[in-house]
Design goal:
It is built from 4 helices and 12 strands. It has helices at 3-13, 36-60, 73-107, 134-146; strands at 15-21, 28-35, 176-179, 190-193, 199-201, 206-214, 218-225, 229-239, 246-247, 252-256, 268-275, 278-280. The strands form 2 sheets. Strands 3, 4, 5, 6, 7, 8, 9, 10, 11 and 12 form a 10-stranded antiparallel beta sheet that branches. A two-stranded antiparallel sheet has the order 1-2. A hairpin with a 6-residue loop joins strand 1 (15-21) and strand 2 (28-35). It starts with a helix and ends in an 8-residue tail after the last strand.
Amino acid sequence: MSKNENKKQKNWRDKYRFSVTNDTTFEEVWRIRLTQYNAFLLITFLVFFIIGSTTCLIAFTNLREFIPGYPNVTMRRNILLSAIRLDSLEREVDLRDKYFANLNAIISGEKPVEIFSLTDSTKNYKTISFGKSPEDSVLRAQVEKESRFSLSSGPVLPEAVTNMASLHFFPPVKGIVSGKFNSRLKHYGTDIVTRPKSPVNAMLGGTVIFTGWTMETGFVIEVQHSNDIISVYKHNASLLKETGDLVRTGEAIAIVGDSGEIYTSGPHLHLEIWYKGNPLDPEKHIIF
């Protein structure tokens, strides 16, 4: 081995001392002994520690938002909402195009395009099994045994009433008609004057879908009946039912009054009948 190589190897293992000395008293305050090998390892560790710490701070804290061009929380939320709205808009545009295509086909006398429901493409509907489980068979047999003498059991039939002529409307109140139905004047109901505090009865059985108060018509109650019929009772003094209640034909649902600040001139009931979104003349179906 040459002398130069021995000298380099010796210098690599030689120890060096780094000290801090007081300039006035020449007292050694702090010192450290390192070889070139130890110094190299220490510097390498510090470099990797700084790089790792910086990476963790950027990756797992909000400091990454200070990087130019990196989106913040608000921007990412807006991007997600925009993607959802864009998907909904594309779906609506597709449905609109199919609607216009069907409309053009009907006008031209051609067969319209079949309307199909959009399915979830991520699911495999062919693997769904509709077989009966043993528990289902036992429950079905038990229910059939318990209800075999029930008068209400049996096959469910479609609506027997197909037109308004087959329905019997119960008069909500008895009195004198003071305001007739007039669609041209946008008076879509009939005003019946009766005794104050008289009960207002439901003309058909159904479900209360709205109860509230408006400045124009006071206390209002609306009842949804079968066959797409809705009855509306306005200017009541008070309401006896709430939204979601089931009512029977002839059951009291409100009290006659003159509530409202615009369209009222005394105690009376304003009755409206709507069939499939179109107003009907109550006098043609009810005798007051």
